[in-house]
């Protein structure tokens, strides 16, 4: 479904600011996989999502969706494949537009022609139905400006918008990190139900290890531009936060040992 094949990305190569963000990363996701991604700061998690979304070009390696290379696909073409929710609740929605206008925009994602914000009755009914599922009462507020919503409400709406057009891949980039624990829980719950309902192939970056263990059917851990741990469902179910930390320390120690040996 999604194949990342030996992808490398270095920022500012050959300068003092050189940063190897992805170091020969390979990853294959099957249809419907829900993979949580954890790792230290600067491990390359966001860069991984950015190269899938086409926001950053790879230096080498290839990226295939449905066995088709998307490296040279135009932005708007790739947009039809990808839904994305960012950490910042302000990033996924247009604050000056109403809820229904935002949803109408989301529906047009991946299409080449200009935006039309007109909302037909049929569409409004669909929007209402989808909003009911969020259980936030937003279906009563279709004409409210999105800028008036709370962070949690905006993230829930962003999630709905990102999944609206049944993207082939849903990318969640610490999308609950800016929310208080109660709202974060709500958005996590909504995420699970949207992903399960629409059987979306999903990558979710999080710094919350407990959340990373609680959702999804696979977990990967990144460190210094590499995937250092890849837990399939059965192993993930048995894993604990303490166990993850121990794995991290062990693998990190091993990586340092290797380097010391090579040096
Ligand atoms: N646009 C950019 N320009 C230059 N360097 C970048 C850019 N984006 C990322 N990097 C560098 O690439 C490396 C990986 O960054 P990335 O943001 O992918 O890590 P991350 O795992 O998402 O980290 P965090 O958990 O802190 O968000 C870091 O060293 C970072 O400084």
UniProtKB/TrEMBL annotation:
Keyword line: ATP-binding, Cell membrane, Membrane, Nucleotide-binding, Transport
InterPro entries: AAA+_ATPase, ABC_transporter-like_ATP-bd, ABC_transporter-like_CS, ABC_transporter_ATP-bind, P-loop_NTPase
The keyword Phosphoprotein appears for this protein: no
Signal peptide range in chain numbering: none
Taxonomy, superkingdom: Bacteria
GO molecular function: ATP binding
Record's bilayer topology term: Peripheral membrane protein
Predominant localisation class: membrane
Keyword Membrane: yes
Protein name: ABC transporter ATP-binding protein
Taxonomic source organism: Agromyces lapidis
């Amino acid at each position: 479904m999604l194949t990342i094949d030996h992808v490398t990305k270095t920022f500012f190569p050959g300068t003092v600011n050189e940063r190897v963000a992805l170091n020969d990363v390979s990853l294959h996701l099957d249809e419907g996989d829900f993979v949580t991604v954890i790792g230290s700061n600067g491990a390359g998690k966001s860069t991984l999502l950015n190269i899938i979304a086409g926001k950053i070009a790879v230096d080498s390696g290839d990226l295939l969706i449905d066995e088709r290379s998307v490296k040279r696909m135009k932005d708007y073409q790739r947009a039809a494949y990808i839904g994305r929710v960012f950490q910042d609740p302000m990033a996924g929605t247009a604050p000056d537009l109403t809820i229904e206008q935002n949803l109408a925009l989301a529906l047009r994602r991946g299409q080449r022609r200009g935006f039309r914000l007109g909302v037909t009755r049929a569409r409004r009914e669909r929007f209402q139905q989808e909003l009911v599922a969020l259980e936030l009462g937003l279906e009563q507020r279709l004409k409210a400006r999105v800028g008036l919503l709370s962070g949690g409400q905006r993230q829930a709406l962003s999630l709905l918008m990102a999944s609206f057009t049944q993207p082939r891949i849903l990318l969640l980039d610490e999308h609950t990190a800016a929310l208080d624990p109660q709202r974060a829980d709500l958005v996590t719950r909504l995420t699970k139900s949207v992903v399960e309902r629409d059987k979306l192939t999903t990558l979710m970056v999080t710094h919350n290890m407990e959340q990373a263990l609680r959702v999804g059917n696979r977990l990967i851990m990144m460190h210094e531009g590499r995937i250092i741990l890849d837990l399939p469902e059965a192993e993930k179910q048995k894993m604990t936060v303490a166990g993850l930390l121990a794995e991290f320390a062990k693998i990190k120690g091993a990586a340092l040992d290797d380097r010391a040996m090579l040096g």
